[in-house]
Amino acid sequence: MPKYVLTGADGKLGSAAAAFAAEIAKPEDKLVFTAYKLSNIPKESLEAWQAKGIEVAGASYDDTASLLAVFQGADAVSMVSTWAFGDRPKQAARVIEAAQQCGVRRLCYTSFVGAGLEVEKEEDLPFLPRDHARIEKLIKASGLEYNIQRNYLYQDNIAELFVPSWPFCGDSWLNNTHHVRAAYVARDDCGRVLAALLLGRGQPNKVYHVTGPEAVTDGQIMDWICDQTGYQCEFIDMPDAELRRWWADRGLPEDAATGDFSGLPMKLCMEDLLCCGEMVARGYMLETSDVVERLTGRRPLRFRETLMKYKANFPVAADTSDCDHVANHCRE
């Protein structure tokens, strides 16, 4: 009976991975889902998993003992990247060490596009892929078999992190993508790919690029969102330095862990914010892949489908009396 340990099942990506793993697991598979905080798992999810014989346990990337307890006897384990910028390689090292001690054969990791870029120095990498590049090196040097997925930026982040800033910015999207297209991917699709890889649908020691189905500009996404409510927003493309100054003048922190975001519309540190646009502007997310459909059997979600989940959070026009055309459609 093969044992598969899916860590981070209480997170957004991890919960999507857990749901799909529970769906596709074979009767002989033993599944263990771990959570940093068991209280974060919805009661209905916990009960449904346990009804299927899935073990649910607490474990943290910062606590080696908790990892050793759940990794014993596992054939494969997964590791989801966290928000702990700078500390993530240390977390990964603990996971790798625990996996080695427990005789785990294979490790699956959610990396990020750009982690494989060839550069002379690590500092030459854009901010967001740096930790991931270090972690990929640790995994490849560990002797463990691996599956690595390099996810594109999430469609969900646009609704959760950027859209709330539009009213704050004077009904404008201050943006540094320079009108370059990007194949944003649904976070749920990334979660399903992780589950598929964990349960053995990938090839050994292979890196997969997980993308959305189409490359679009941020301006196109903004226009579509505005069409849903009648809200009027201006797309303003800015050089990186100018965008940095604008947000610095309004107190955007340099560090996500210790910064004060209480008066700001989004919790993104400066380098994270700027690098999101930089990754798009450099063309790192232009190409699409068939990885989602090939590994999960489902077509990848278009941004319209994903963003409709967040429609209640879209800014609205001051007067929506003439917005009878608004409809819950996700078609082209």
TrEMBL record:
<dbReference type="InterPro" id="IPR036291">
    <property type="entry name" value="NAD(P)-bd_dom_sf"/>
</dbReference>
<dbReference type="InterPro" id="IPR016040">
    <property type="entry name" value="NAD(P)-bd_dom"/>
</dbReference>
<feature type="domain" description="NAD(P)-binding">
    <location>
        <begin position="8"/>
        <end position="151"/>
    </location>
</feature>
<dbReference type="InterPro" id="IPR051604">
    <property type="entry name" value="Ergot_Alk_Oxidoreductase"/>
</dbReference>
<protein>
    <submittedName>
        <fullName>Quinone oxidoreductase 2</fullName>
    </submittedName>
</protein>
<dbReference type="Pfam" id="PF13460">
    <property type="entry name" value="NAD_binding_10"/>
</dbReference>
